[in-house]
Please model this.
Amino acid sequence: MEYKGYMIIPGKWEIEYRYAAGEYATKFFKGLMEEKIYGVKCPSCRRVIVPPRKFCERCFVEPSEWIEVGPKGELVNFVIVYRKFHGLPDPPYAIGLIKLDGADDSILHFISEVDLSSPYRALKVLKPGVKLEAVWAEEKKGMILDIKYFKPIETG
Amino acid sequence: MVKQDVAVVGVGLTKMGRRYDSNHSELAWEAIKELFDKTTIWIDDVDAVVYGTMDPFDGIASPERWDSSAYGIARGAGKPLVKVTTGGTTGMSIALSAYYHVASGLYDIVLAVGTQKVTEPVEAQEVLNIAVDPLFDRHTGVGAIAVGAIQASAYYFDYNKKIEEYMAIVASKNRLNALRNPYSHLKLKVTPEEALMAPYLIWPIKLLDSCPSSDGSVAVLMASDKVARKIFDSPAWVSAVDYISDTYWFCCNKGLSFWNSLAILARRLYRKAGISDPKKQIDVFELYDAFTIQEILEYEALGLANKGEGWKLLEEEATYPYGDYPVNPSGGVLSTNPVGVTGLWRFAEAALQVMDNAGAHQVPNVDIALAHAWGGALQFHALALLSRERKLC
Model:
C-alpha cells in the first residue's frame, strides 16, 4: 500500500488472553448460570455493589455480605449506536446503565426489543426510570452475556 | 513542596493529522527538531526526559523504546527517562510530571514530550474498547464515543432537550477556529446547521460532535527560575497545576450531567493560585473537548456558567475567540486528537498564548491561560494555569 508515495506496511495483532475472573466475579458468573444476579453490600457505606467487587473503593474495606438483586431494574441512562465500528457489534443497538432492584450502582448492558430505527422512535419508550428486566441466554457460559440483554417490562 | 518556580521556555509541534509520510520515531524527531531549531539551548543541555503515549493506539507496545533515541537519551551518557500513561490525560500527565521534576529542585531543564499515531489502527474505537474491563463492560463495544454519548444523554434528560442544537454550535466554532491554526488536523468550514444535519454515530453524538483520529507529536521544554530567562526572555510561568481521580466504574460515577470531579479540581486549583473570579482573571481556555457536549460540561465545571446553563454561553458567543472567555481558539480536540499527546498540546497552546506566540489564533492580551485534559472512563482530570507573570498574586 502507498499513500502519496509513502509506503504503508500492513499489521495485525492476534494475541489470545486468559482473563482471571477473580474471586468475586467468579461467584457472580456462577450465579448467572443459575439465572441469579448477585451483588455485595459494603459493611461501611451499606452500598450494594453490582457487579460485585472485592473492595469498596470509597470505604477501602472488603464487603462479605452477598445479596441477590434484580433481575428487574430501571433504566438510568442510555445511548444508541448507529455507526458500524470495525470489530465492534453491528448497529443499531442501545447500551444502557441499568440499576437493578436492590442495587445501588448501575451495570452496563444492551437494551433490546425496542424500535431503534430512529432516536425519535426509541425515545418514545426509553427514558430514565423505565422498568426493565433481564432476558437470559438459553445456553449459559458463565459470562456477562448469560444475560442476553435487558428489555422494557410491558405495562398495562 | 515547590522548591523552585517552573516556566515553559520552548514548544515544538508537528503538523497533526494523517501522517502516513512519517513513522513513529520520525514524528517524534520532527517535534524535537522544531523545538531545538527555535531554542537557544541544545539537547545536551536537557537534564531529564518525560515521555508519554496512550498504549496501544500505535500498535507498538511501549513505543518509548523506539522513540527515545529522538529525545537524546542515546547520546553520550544518556539521560533519565520516565514514561507516563493515563488515557486521555496522558499529555497533561507528561506536563505535570515534567513540572514536578523541576519544581522539586531535582532538575533544572526537563523535556516533556509525547508522540501518538491514532490513524494507524484501522478503528480507534476498537482500541479504546480494549481499555475497558474485559469481564463486565467490554462486550457492549463501549469506547470513548459511547462515554461521551452517555454524558450528552444525561444532559439531555437532566437539563436541556435541545442540547444537540448547542453541541452543533460548539462543533462549528471549534472547526472554524482550526482554520487559523496551521498545525490542526481537520480544516472544516462548517455551520451549526450543517453540524446538526450530520449522521448519528452514537445518539446523541453526531459525526461532527466527535473529534477525529490524528497523528502528532508535541515537545515542551521546561526550566527552573534559575535558568528560564536565559533560555527565553518572556517564558510562560507554570503558576499552578493539579490533578484529580474518580472511580473507574463510570456506572457509579454520579457526575454524568455535571462534571463533579472537574468542578472540585477547578476550585482546588483556583484557591491554590488565588483566582477568585475565573471569568475575569483567566484570559483564554484550552480544554479537552473530545466531544462537543464536553466543552459545555467544562464551562459549567470551571465556573464560566451555572450548572445546567453552559449552553447559554454559546447563545452569547462568549466562548468564541472574540468573546469574553475564549475557549479552544486553537480549534481544540474536536479538530485534532492525537490522544496521548493532546493534553500536552493543550498545555503547550496555553503557554504559547501567554508567550504571545500562538500565531494567527493568538488571543489579544493574554496574561493567564488555563489548560485541561480528561481521561479514563470519565475518571481523570488535569489542570494547569500558565501566566505571563512569575507570581500571580
Notes: The mean pLDDT of chain A is 95. The interface with chain B takes residues 3-4, 6, 8, 11, 13, 17, 19, 21, 25, 51, 57-58, 77-83, 85-89, 95, 97, 105-110, 119, 122, 127-128, 143-145 of chain A (CB under 8 Å). Residues 20-152 of chain A form one domain.
